[in-house]
Amino acid sequence: MIRKNIVLVAVLSSMGLFAQDDLIKKVIGNASIQSEFIFKDVINLDNTSVKNQGSAGTCWSYSGNSFLESEMMRMGKKPVDIAEIFTARQIYLGKARNYILFNGNLSIGDGGELHDVMNVLKRNGAMPQQAYTLEDYGKGAVKASEMQNHLKEILDNFIKNPKNKEATWTSEVKNYLDEKLGKLPESFDYNGKKYTPQSFAKEVIGINPDNYIELSSYADSPYYEKMVMPVPDNWSYDQLYNVPMNSITSIIDHALSKGYTVAWATDVSEPYFSWKNGVAHVPNLDLYNITDEQKKTIFNGPIQEKPITEELRLDGLYTLFTTDDHGMHIVGLAKDQNGKEYYKVKNSWGATNDYKGYLYVTKAYVQLKTTAILLHKNALPKSERTKLKV
Question: What is the DSSP letter of 305?
Fold first, then answer.
């Protein structure tokens, strides 16, 4: 099996040391056409405005916090515009720690996972955008790749110096983050009341991270047991639950039907994912050798999809054709003109595509390309909760 070219393999760590705009440019390269898709929303759950992460690899923070904002709405709360860079900043500090302790054998880029958002909410709290207003990261003068490279340089210099007597990297990293991202306020005002990040998370956001569960599907590991998520951006080596492939979509279906949205991590670097056209589906072709001529017609309209099996999914993971590229937010369900179901997905690349920041993704694509989902435990079907013992 021929692997993806080196550029696509490089982005397998959710744009860890690589600018996400490399991936976005490729995906947007699928030019918009006068397609014959007609979508009608069947379920359209509450969600906040579409954001734009720019070229930074912070999709996991944008999608995870978008998910939290929808959870607030589901719970009857007024949603907060959560500061995504506050969440990302806490992960940079955790990554720096592990990078040192693992003697440099760890990614130090922007990439993270959906559980990182919950971990930060639990340990560090959260801030509203108005209290930590940094918008430049990945979009202007503060270049994501340059910042990541310098963080790595600070840590590598410390590791290479055998005469270190003090852990100076801790202050150097914090000072550099202050320089690039601005100092974090210890407290801030919100709607006339003073909060710390911890009190804001508890009193305003009001979400208990322990009520949420992360799932994936690897046919080579025992089902309904925990496993370490085997992707480079799982820098904290968190565990998630392993379920059969078909359970991924049945769980999402049940969640949406009960009013719960789902945070979604997936691969978006395939020629059958088109951000511009706002569609992702799986053509009934040799997926590893799609020709240029075949690519021209993939998004002309609804297609007959390739049957997805556990073996095909696992082969994609093993050959690195399925990579942990991107995090998004599943907010609804739709049908095309033939009655076929698609998930409605909110992205964080701005309102720049045919569906103003959203796209429609088939269940076959989700089964084949999902790397993880995150949702409330109560959104699980009763049978799955029983098997998972949660």
Answer: B
